[in-house]
Design a protein that fits this description.
The protein has about 400 residues and is of the alpha/beta class. The chain is about 40% helix and about 20% strand. It has 13 helices and 15 strands. The strands form four sheets. A five-stranded mixed sheet has the order 5-4-3-6-10. Strands 13-12-11-14-15 form a five-stranded mixed sheet, with helices on both faces. Strand 8 and strand 9 form a beta hairpin. The longest helix is centred in the C-terminal third of the chain and has 25 residues. The protein is globular. Bound molecules: zinc ion. The site of zinc ion has 6 residues, from loops.
């Protein structure tokens, strides 16, 4: 059994039972394609009709599913959907610069959004900030909270419990899941930010229906969430997909990781901002809004790009060409159906994805390129949070013990 199947990411604190696997598989299918019938599920999942019937009956009795047309069709043919009222899920993208949080219903429709800046990256204070975000999201909500998933720029253990290392937060070996779960009283799972992003886009965004996709997240750092044949690739010790630390310029700028010329040193949001700042300090004209101390926020830079500021656009295009080189390498290595460009830089507009596409076309092997679409993420700032919420719902619904009549 493949436990790294996308339905099971961050799910491995204990070996899932066959029943949990079947439940997760079926819930995941219905979430991806609302309105499937029992026989369609059996056909797609290759589970026997009997197994599908048993699991669906269980999920119906637990009110996790509902039948769209139970009065007009025979039971075998009713269309099944996840019950949006079965509960709510919290997904939070955590980085040193900001927290972006989304509350969804059980059908993963966003209900509330919230943005917060971290006052510090001390573990205790971060847990407090996260707790208060969760409290605020859940205030006035009647449905039960199924759980919380935190998407982090860092290496997470396979069980989704331990943050092994994050350059961004300057943390190592932090049992964030148990700390936060102890504070809020809900199950908490951790997942790498780019992996949450690829799951979000695969389930609900630009990668819907595709099984071989790579999501490239460009924010404070750069990472790749890699889905191969519907399975999330994690690597031998959970560090797979560190695209930001691949070398794109020999003898380039020194990276925090110790290497020189890493992609991140040239094309992450902080790198782009540093280059823009230098040019403005040298007296070049730009309309970008600066803070009182002269520094630049992500927001201001992205807004200036959308308004067509020349200096800002030049630096973003330069970064996009460098990202394109790294993406061309990914395309040659993995031959994916799509590469999806997300993270904060994607908010600059179509310019980024267009330049990445041109660069990939020029630099990748033509056979690989003919099979790939280079797309902008569809869930905008929500990609990682939506992936995180879907993970919560799947885990909760798969692991609950049957309610005995
Ligand atoms: Zn590096």
């Amino acid at each position: 059994v493949q436990y790294t199947n996308s339905e099971f990411s961050g799910f491995l604190s204990r070996t899932p039972s066959l029943r949990a696997i079947n439940r997760a598989r079926i819930i995941s299918l219905i979430r991806k394609q609302p309105g499937l019938t029992r026989s369609e599920i059996s056909e797609i999942s290759r589970l026997s009709k009997g197994t599908v019937s048993t699991v669906v009956a269980e999920l119906l009795s637990e009110k996790f599913l509902w039948e769209e047309d139970r009065f007009t069709r025979s039971q075998r043919n009713t269309r099944l959907r996840v019950n949006p009222k079965a509960g709510v899920a919290v997904g939070i993208e955590l980085s040193a610069d900001q927290c972006w949080a989304v509350l969804t219903d059980a059908e993963i429709h966003p209900v509330k959004h919230l943005q917060r800046t971290l006052a510090s990256v001390h573990v205790e204070e971060t847990v407090e900030t996260l707790s208060s975000i969760i409290g605020e999201l859940l205030s006035g909500v009647d449905e039960r909270c199924l759980g919380v998933a935190i998407a982090i720029a860092g290496t997470i253990d396979t069980a989704g419990q331990m943050l092994k290392y994050s350059e961004n937060l300057q943390w190592s070996d932090v049992p964030l899941a148990s700390l936060l779960s102890g504070a809020v009283g809900y199950p908490v799972t951790l997942i790498n930010r780019s992996r949450a992003g690829v799951l979000g886009e695969h389930w609900y965004g630009a990668g819907a229906g595709l099984e071989d996709i790579i999501y490239v997240s460009i924010s404070s750092g750069i990472g790749a969430g890699i889905l191969i044949g519907g399975h999330l690739f994690t690597g031998s010790n959970d560090a797979g997909g560190e695209l930001g630390h691949t070398t794109v310029l020999p003898d380039g700028p020194l990276c925090v990781c110790g290497n020189q010329g890493c992609l991140e040193t040239l094309a992450s949001m902080p790198a782009i901002i540093r280059l823009i700042q230098n040019r403005i300090e040298d007296g070049e004209p730009s309309s970008v809004q600066r803070r009182e101390d002269g520094s630049l926020s992500y927001q201001a830079v992205l807004a200036a790009a959308r308004d067509g500021d020349n200096l800002v656009l030049e630096e973003i295009k330069k970064a996009a060409r460098t990202i394109g080189i790294a993406v061309a390498n990914l395309v040659d290595l993995f031959n994916p159906q799509a590469v999806i460009i997300g993270g904060r830089l994607s908010e600059a507009g179509e310019v980024v994805v267009n330049i990445v596409r041109e660069t990939v076309q020029r630099r990748s092997f033509h056979v690989s390129f003919s099979g790939v679409q280079i797309l902008r993420n569809a869930l905008e700032a929500d990609s990682a949070c939506i992936g995180a919420c879907a993970l919560v719902v799947n885990q909760y619904m798969a692991q609950v013990e049957p309610i005995l009549a």
